[in-house]
Amino acid sequence: MNDRSPPRRPATFRLDDPGVVVTEADETARLGRGTIQITPESDPSLLPVPIEAALPVRRGFRWGALFWSGVAGLTLLGVGLGVVRLIEDLFARSESLGFVGLALAFVTALALAVVIGREAVGLARLATIEKLHQRAAAVLASDDRKESRAIVQDLVKIAHQNPQLARARAALESHAGEIIDGADMIRLAERELMTPLDTEARRLVSVAAQRVSIVTAVSPRALIDVMFVLVASLKLIRQLARLYGGRPGALGMIRLLRHVIAHLAITGGMAASDSLVQQMLGHGIAAKLSQRLGEGMLNGLLTARLGLAAIDVTRPLPFAALPQPKLSDLATDLLRKKEDEA
């Protein structure tokens, strides 16, 4: 016996027919036989608009910043006074030693100024890429044509330093005049400029994940595993940042690492609840491997997850026209390689 009701034949009716009943979508009233039920669709203009939660604005005097500024100032004054006293003592002992100390102090100060300048430039460049990402996301929502052209110009300036994007820049500039909508302009720039960079970024993440899985599988100590994963993760984040146009220094790496960790926290953590990992562990795929190979595979997956988060942070454009890489795309080669080694 078939429980399914027979298909209803098409019929015509008038809206003023007494047998036509208009009900809301959430109403479950039981209608009589021969009654026609109509449920009107919701008006898109009346639907609630999602509003992003605004970050709390700090008000008042920032005593923490004043404290650390004072500590840094006192440290610099102390170091400078110590260097001056050292040079004076060297001059008192020997004039030649005094000039040697003065020359070394000058070289040290020059190197410190260069390092600080590079750090400032790197931080400014990372901030530019971050703002460019936010502006592009806003244009995709607002379809602002003028702002989209400004974003493309800034993006081309960053891409000028990468000789591999010369053909992509030429193609983008040749088709830019044919695009009218702002969102389409952003999607065109993403397809032309981000496609080769995304391919290389995926390769870097895959290689790093495979290297981590192999080393942690054969490593005899857990401390060595932790140190290698940390070094490999930092190297991967730096490579991805340089690939997409950033030049992070020491302070830039700290800022990038903080953003990547925050992104992981927002998107669900270190892939512990990722469906792919659940499938691998739940279906017993990891059980087919040895214990060390299974641990290495899991470490490789976590490294790949970190790399995908770094791509989202360092990429100057959001994923709109191109598909966003997923963990399942990177885990296929890793799983196949581990099964071959088992």
TrEMBL record:
Key words of the record: Cell inner membrane, Cell membrane, Membrane, Transmembrane, Transmembrane helix
Signal sequence range: none
InterPro entries per UniProt: DUF697 (IPR021147), UPF0283 (IPR006507)
The organism's place on the tree of life at top rank: Bacteria
Keyword Lipoprotein: no
Pfam family, one: DUF697
This protein's GO CC annotations: plasma membrane
Transmembrane stretches, start-end: 65-84, 96-116
The keyword Cell inner membrane appears for this protein: yes
Entry membrane topology: Multi-pass membrane protein
Compartments, as annotated in UniProt: Cell inner membrane
NCBIfam families given in the database record: hyp_HI0043 (TIGR01620)
Family the UniProt entry places it in: Belongs to the UPF0283 family.
Protein name as it appears in the record: YcjF family protein
